[in-house]
Amino acid sequence: MQLTSLPRYDKQLSAFHRAFRRELEAIVSALPVRADMRVLDLACGDGFYTRRIAERLGPNGCITGADINLAYLAEAGDAATRGTRGTRCAKIDFVAASFDRLPFPGDVFDLVWCAQSLYTLPDPVTAVSHMVRVVRPGGLVVVLESDTLHQVLLPWPVHLELPLRAAELRAFLEKGRNSSKYYIGRRLPAVLAAAGLEPLRMTTYAFDRQAPLGTAERELLHRYLEEVADRVAPYLDTVFLQEFHRLLDPGSAEYLLGQPHFTMTWLTVLACGRKRSV
Predict the structure, then answer these.
(1) Fewer CB within 10 Å: C terminus or N terminus of the chain?
(2) Residue 86: its pLDDT value, please?
(3) What pLDDT digit, counting tens, does each position of 246-257 carry?
């Protein structure tokens, strides 16, 4: 099923890219990319990573961005046309495709990149297996993910954080049987291995910020906290929920993002696996 409107998480994801652009570009710069590679950016969204990998590849490489969302693909195509005009970057194509119906023959890509998408799918191992099919023997699958429990480190009260995270887990358990996919960051090497890859390395990146926050950081964190509040509301004790809402209220003296000594750390996990040669 192809989607024709941007997903509800689009604004939060866009704020994430803007808030941590410098760190994310450094991650892309460290990828094991050669100038003549053929790369797939799976679940490419608005093409944020597609464009940056294309710059790494140069004119002798090519990259395909694939996504199920047609609105995202249109946005990604427009941004690629504007952003790469006159530059010596790789050829960029965009195709409408889902994880389980990739319109590519087997063993065709040198590297498959997938960022912050596995947790949205019913079964991460199955999703990575589809990536394995289209990457050549000896080629790489590189995944960038978060772990819901350890995603954002904030200076909120411990007595609130512990029941809040327990309520969040209850919310995920009621959403479906595979609640562990929301905590995939800690399991990435095992997921890659279960899909048939040889896990090579896993790296955790910490993006640190402190007051005063920039516009993008403030928007990202506010959207993130509102999403958490909506998720835990049915499962969190009323007293804790009221305290949480005070932390979210810009008009409150307890407003978390307005504290003069506010600090935060956003953790992101990068895992790489190689397809075994036959």
Answers:
(1) N
(2) 53
(3) 999 999 999 999
Residue 4: count other Cβ atoms within 10 Å of its Cβ. 9
What whole-number distance in Å separates Cα of residue 168 and Cα of residue 232? 5
CB 126 within 8 A of CB 54: no
Which H/E stretch holds residue 143?
Answer: strand 135-145
Token pair listed for 38: 């053929």
Reply yes or no: is the peptide bond before residue 212 cis, omega within 30 of 0.
yes
pLDDT in single tens digits along all 278 residues of the chain? 556 788 888 999 999 999 999 999 999 999 999 988 999 999 999 999 999 999 999 888 999 999 999 999 999 999 888 866 556 778 999 999 999 999 999 999 999 999 999 888 889 999 999 999 999 999 999 999 999 999 999 999 999 999 999 999 999 999 877 888 889 999 999 999 999 999 999 999 999 999 999 999 999 999 999 999 999 999 999 999 999 999 999 999 999 999 999 999 999 999 999 999 87
Strand pairing report for 91-96 and 109-115: unpaired
Give Cβ neighbours of residue 265 (< 8 Å, ≥ 6 apart).
152, 153, 206, 207, 208, 209
Hey, what are 239's tokens?
Answer: 């007293």
In this structure, what DSSP letter does residue 215 have?
A: H
DSSP string, 14-75: HHHHHHTHHHHHHHHHTS---TT-EEEEET-TTSHHHHHHHHHH-TT-EEEEEESBHHHHHH
Query: In this structure, how many other beta carbons lie within 10 angstroms of the beta carbon of residue 215?
Result: 10
| Long-range contact set of residues 241-250: C-beta below 8 Å, sequence gap at least 24 | 243/157, 243/160, 244/160, 244/164, 247/156, 247/160, 248/222
